[in-house]
Amino acid sequence: MSTTEPGATHPPGVMHPQGLHRIGHRLWFGPVHAALVRELRPRPGQRVLDVGAGTGALADRVSAAGATVICVEPDAGSLAAARQRLSGRDAEFIAAPADSIPLPSGSADGAVVSHVIRGGGRHDS
Question: Which of 70, 87, 116, 120, by CA, is between 20 and 30 Å from 49?
Fold first, then answer.
């Protein structure tokens, strides 16, 4: 099992934002993200968590609907890509794993999670 250390960047390849992942993401997750946003119905004035935000594809859709999106992502490279994608939008960025989000209860009006892979950290023998 491989894990991504905080601050590490992905090597070019399948999961790299510029690689095959980018094409597959649009084909597979485009309809999934559209359905999530349709069900969530984000509106201006709402705060929505995107847990496991990755490079911000789903957060981009939530933000386009007018809500403030809070991107929660442990991978520094992915969070930087999300920050760049959402530049100029009402968005916040938190470097944290899904099981340890440093926000008080009631900080958001809704939340979305899509395609989150939990590495589980280090496993010592």
Answer: 120
